[in-house]
């Protein structure tokens, strides 16, 4: 049985209880699986727009942030937009709109891209709030010194002036990785404290995030929390932020996309939550601010832009609804040749990639039209292993239930969905291999209603969203 909700959300669950969750009655004859949605067991309330947050890059021309990009982003239902984009954060001076290499010696003019004011203007068109990755390094440009602390405070003041009180501020990006200017855990934490104080002085409602590690690294997370505690500064931390990529795919290995990996993400989130609770930091939230099915080495295309990537993305976002407080798929606008891109920024106008549609379907299934409005995440039991089928459900105020089903098998599955009440109507949309390859969006899926039960057939390797009213 895939009784994920009780296993992932109930913290401190013992091994014996986990074992007990692995037994359940077989599905009825003629069915491959039964999915039971509990209306009484509400796991938590979550803002879906944070889980379906956006990642933006300063390298995208402002000319690309027009009506087409706006409408595509709106359909993904974000309520937060991260900027200036990944590794650039440690080498980006927002005041001058210049970018350097890791040595911070030569600074190039990036005025051809999106600057901070253009970023904020675009956020206003999509109704989202900023999540900014601050440069933690002091630097000099043309002989003029730039203080990271001063520029962080100035940015927070600008955000407040622009109407963005309570914005999100990450400090640095992946300083644990050799591809970035590296800091030790202690040095990073010391910089975090200085920048966090600066933004909170400018905006007491500001929400700060660290240590922004490149992967699930409890050594870094614990070391960061230890250092904060030793310096009496845990009050400055509002969010733990880290990144999750499903794997490394290279011509030097035989790796492919692992469709079981999202369940590993769930276990990571439980471990971090336990760590925070054990330290008396239950108020601190968790964000997975970069997430995708894999990182691809140069020249390797294995599993790129395949239905497997679509399944991974939808499943990981379902997991995030269950167990994270925020998540951002990497990356939204980017050249369409990049397998991580959701929207091809080089098309005129910007156009969805194949990976756009599974993310959009998951977001629309599990959030209402206004993604800022919290939804109730419901307990769901599935009598197939999570390696075959996963399911997620949310109750949306005034908009019924949304259910997301991910069939990871290479065969169609006849499924019964047991509901907490008799619906007036139910409709389904599906992305299988054919829809994914066509890149044209989901197809209508027939759903039969009998009392409190829905019956439907999930195509092989597919993502299905159900709207139940």
Annotate the secondary structure layout.
Elements: H1 4-9, H2 15-20, E1 33-46, H3 48-51, E2 54-55, H4 67-75, E3 80-83, E4 92-93, E5 98-100, E6 107-109, H5 116-126, E7 129-134, E8 139-141, E9 144-146, H6 148-161, E10 168-171, H7 185-202, E11 207-213, H8 218-230, E12 239-245, E13 248-249, H9 261-278, E14 285-292, E15 295-296, H10 307-323, E16 326-329, E17 333-334, E18 343-344, E19 351-352, H11 356-366, E20 375-382, E21 389-396, E22 400-407, E23 413-418, E24 426-431, H12 433-438, E25 443-445, E26 448-450, E27 453-458, E28 462-468
Helix pairs in contact: 6-7, 7-8, 9-10, 10-11
Low-confidence stretches: 1-25
Beta-strand residue fraction: 25-35%
The number of domains: 2
Estimated radius of gyration: 22 Å
Number of helices: 12
Please give the order of strands in the largest beta sheet. 25-24-28-22-21-20-1-23-27-26
Based on Cα principal axes, name the global outline: globular
Q: Do you know the CATH topology of the largest domain?
A: TIM Barrel
Fourth-level CATH superfamily of the largest domain: Glycosidases
Structural class of the helix and strand makeup? alpha/beta
**CATH architectural arrangement of the largest domain:** Alpha-Beta Barrel
Distance between the termini: 27 Å
By DSSP, the count of extended strands is 28
The CATH class of the largest domain, by name, is Alpha Beta
